[in-house]
Amino acid sequence: MISADDLRKEYGDFVAVEGSSFTVDDGDVFGIVGPNGAGKTTTLKMLAGLLDPTSGTAQVAGYDTAETEMRNDLGFLPEESPLYEEMTALSYLSFFADLYDVPGAVAEERIHETLDKLDLEHRERQIGDMSKGMKRKVAITRSLVNDPDVLIYDEPASGLDPLTTNYIIEFTEQLAKEGKTIVFSAHNLFHVESICDRVAIMADGEIIARGDLAELQDAHGETTYHVYTTVEVSDSVRENGQYRRIVESMDAVDETRTLAEEAGGDVIDIRTEESSLEEVFLNVAESRSHSEG
Ligand SMILES: Nc1ncnc2c1ncn2[C@@H]1O[C@H](COP(=O)(O)OP(=O)(O)OP(=O)(O)O)[C@@H](O)[C@H]1O
């Protein structure tokens, strides 16, 4: 379990994170999204014990983040992976496993198993000669050498091609299925939507909306109804021999039925569509900028 209680970080006069509070249950995936400079990395670094909060507290895996023992149960993936370019992937990963006192044979098996799952070849290649995607896979493997219960990933797939990105997102989802508790930040809302149990939307250092997707959709999204009819009604579009009218309320669905019947036809189907996380995000951002005048 992870809990953040009123976390705040100031840099001089500037408040980078303000009053951040949330909890993440064991085995859940929690996504933090927001524009550049929103305070995502600062929040994650405070959770990982790499940055002292100006005020507020956080607990990760049963430890206060100020306790160094916490790091044995934590895997942190920074936005930019600081890898030792002249080491090979295997020697680098063994070196980190050693720092965590993982016995040699266990470490070797764990490292190869993770690299197998991530489909990383050329493990004896120097890290400096690896592609960006390969380096990211090495960094992810590094975050797992101590078999931690909690993973904190800052933009795990940033700057990678779509195929590698999918690979890494699916791998992260698999880690959650294996029981890891994961907090990660991302710009790509589709990824967050596809694997997160709960989401926090940050802007200017504050969490401005949070919840599971259904809660966010209820609070900030819209439901649209796609009404399919046998005859043309106003604002409908012809599609595969039938007509589709998109409306935003049940009253408008009833009105469509009346219009169709008046024209001698009927309603064949009604489908509902909920806002995507991206639409929710844009609605939240827009209402915030309006309220700020
Ligand atoms: N060491 C620092 N000194 C002063 N300001 C800082 C420092 N580190 C971060 N900031 C500022 O704090 C704010 C939040 O930064 P942070 O890196 O947490 O944002 P982010 O949401 O992760 O952004 P991005 O999506 O671009 O990675 C930014 O305005 C940043 O310039």
Automatic annotation (TrEMBL):
Q: Where are the transmembrane segments?
A: none
Q: Where is the ABC transporter domain?
A: 2-229
Q: Which PROSITE patterns match?
A: ABC_TRANSPORTER_2
Q: Which UniProt keywords apply?
A: ATP-binding, Nucleotide-binding, Transport
User: Has UniProt tagged this entry with the keyword Transport?
Assistant: yes
| Entry's Gene Ontology molecular function annotations | ATP binding
Task: Output the Pfam families linked to this UniProt entry.
Answer: ABC_tran
For the keyword ATP-binding, the answer is yes
Q: Which family does it belong to?
A: Belongs to the ABC transporter superfamily.
Q: What is this protein called?
A: ABC transporter ATP-binding protein
Provenance organism? Halovenus rubra
